[in-house]
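Q: How do we represent a protein-ligand complex in a form that can be generated token by token?
A: Start from the inputs.
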Amino acid sequence: MKLFRPGRGWQGAISLGGDKSISHRLLLFALQHHGRFIIENISQCDDVKTSLKIFEQAGGRIETLPDKRLCLESPAEISDLRRSEIFCGNSGTTARLLCGILAGLPFSFRLTGDESLSRRPMRRVIEPLEKMGAGFSCNDGRLPLTITGSAKLDPISHNLQVASAQVKSAILLAATRAEGLTTIEEPLQSRNHSEILLRELGAEITADAGRITLRGPFNSAGDFSFKVPGDTSSAAFIVAAATLLPGSKIEINNVLLNPQRIAFLHKLKQMGAQLNWKVESSEFEESGTIHAGFSPDLKAVNIEGHEVPGLIDELPVLAAVMAFAIGTSSVRGAAQLRIKESDRISSICRLLKQIGVAVEELEDGYCITGPAKITKRHTVEPAGDHRIAATMAVMALASEQGMLIANHQCVKISFPEFSDFFQTFSPETFFEAKNDLCW
Ligand code: S3P
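Then emit the structure tokens for the protein with shikimate-3-phosphate bound:
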């Protein structure tokens, strides 16, 4: 339990650890690669550490170079992974992308996960991979699961039922082991980091308005260097805090600005935030600088289903900003939030209600009416969900008495530098509960 005190203006320039989605992909794509990946600024978050451990479990070698870059040397034989259980921790990206890789190997592998991951649906990857020739047995569509791959996968044409970059990536990884053209149609565009990486590695891939094709087989080989831009989804918490705290003025450098990942910035701007960003590099992925400052009189905003894939990981922190905006904001068509690390619709509504924010829960979203005034100190329980815990920390900054957040350490699942930033920006905001209040 930690007490997060109300904050004063956050000022300064920062940069963030590498984007989680891109870091996962580099580690997992390296499993199938022949050669070396030299990676600068890989994420140090717990989820990425899970992918890193699996890379090592498969026999991959990791060396930290004197300049702190990581050198990944791909395993000679990733089938070694069959010798013991593969633990995917809390990470849906690890579990789902890994299924796409293992589908192309003629052995059986057993995947497990923590309690939260073991509740999340896997049928969305199982169905297309079965069509390609892999076999599965699982616990009612959930982990633990056993996948039995095939050395001869078939290419498929697949319409995704929901926009999901994890499912799309799993199919693309399997498609590199299939002979012929695999086509994926997405109902709405999801993040495209796998497409960008595959193109970078030399695959024959096209992506056009929600239709992706890949011609297999594709064997990636050679030595590649990548610089991972700072994590945009983590940046969202810093931007939200700066927006809400009088006197704030922050600059975030070298941050990922891939157009599929910055809908959050566009929405905040629509709400009236003092915010701008500039793409400065398009090498590998687009990246650049964000400037954000205190933004009084934020206006309510509506989010509709077609906007959800671009905002999926930022909706929790956007709910915090909505709570302090003037008027009723709404989020609809976001039922996918219910099957994230927690049921995020229920977590957001439960916690906002608890701290006195006017919120109405809907099946596929919620309505939040602001501006809220959080006058009492509350103790909140973020359900072990990293993005919910970080969202409550942002709300604590903008409250009058701060908040006690139980199990706040789960933030490290995606944002390991989070506590450091809170301490650096406003040291008075962050104390061990035992030094301050005893519970
Ligand atoms: C991710 C895709 C998204 C996102 C998750 C990371 C990825 O999930 O919510 O945090 O790296 O591909 P879905 O694919 O389920 O939409």
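The radius of gyration is 21 Å. Confidence is low (pLDDT under 50) at residues 432-439.
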